[in-house]
Structures are given as structure tokens and as C-alpha cells.
Amino acid sequence: MAEPATITRVHEPDAEPAPNLPISALATVAVTVLDAARGLIMPSSLTIYGHGQEVSLQFASEQGSYDTIAAWAEMFGATLICRRWHGDDGSPVNICRASFDHDGTRIDMFAVIPVAPAAT
Prior knowledge:
The longest helix is centred in the first third of the chain and has 14 residues, at 23-36. This protein has helices at 23-36, 65-76; strands at residues 45-49, 54-59, 81-86, 92-102, 105-114. The chain has 120 residues and is an alpha+beta fold. It is built from 2 helices and 5 strands. It has a domain at 42-114.
């Protein structure tokens, strides 16, 4: 009979939790990221979440956003993941997402891109 698994919890007393930044500081991080990406196509929407300590960048729902979000991911060292899904109207879309950390703040990028019709 196998022995029961043991769970070991490691406590790092010197590790400090990430600070809970005010919305103004998160906005500064967002501006810094946008400034660093000068020359790339900018997102169509930017949302700052104070509760989640996160900045979200949404790119346009169009075919060109594949290259756009890939360029952003490459610039900031993020891995781009795309998966097939169905839009609100049932049509197929690809949801492309990448995340990275900038000055301790999570930056989440995404685009919901309609699937191009098959060539005939």
C-alpha cells in the first residue's frame, strides 16, 4: 500500500508581498508600457484594475491583430497563446492572449479575432 502524500509548506519570512499600488501608480505603469512600445500598433482599449493590480490591453478584433499582439509579446518577452472559441453570435473566433510583468504589475494583452473564411 502506498504511503499518504506529505504536504510541506515553505514560509519565506524575508519575502515581502507585492505592494498594493494606488490606481495612479498603475496608470503610470500603463503609460510606461505604452511609451516603451512606441512604433508598434497601439491597443484599442486599456483597462486598469486596482483590485487585481493589473493592466489589460485589448487589441482590435481584426485579422491584423495577430501580427500586432505577436509584436507586443516579442517586445516584452511574453508567450502568445491563441485558442479557438465561439463568439457571442456563434461564429468562430481565436482568442489570443499574452501576459508579462512590468515593474511588478501584471500586464495582460488580448484580442478576439474572427476566423477568416476558408478560401474557395
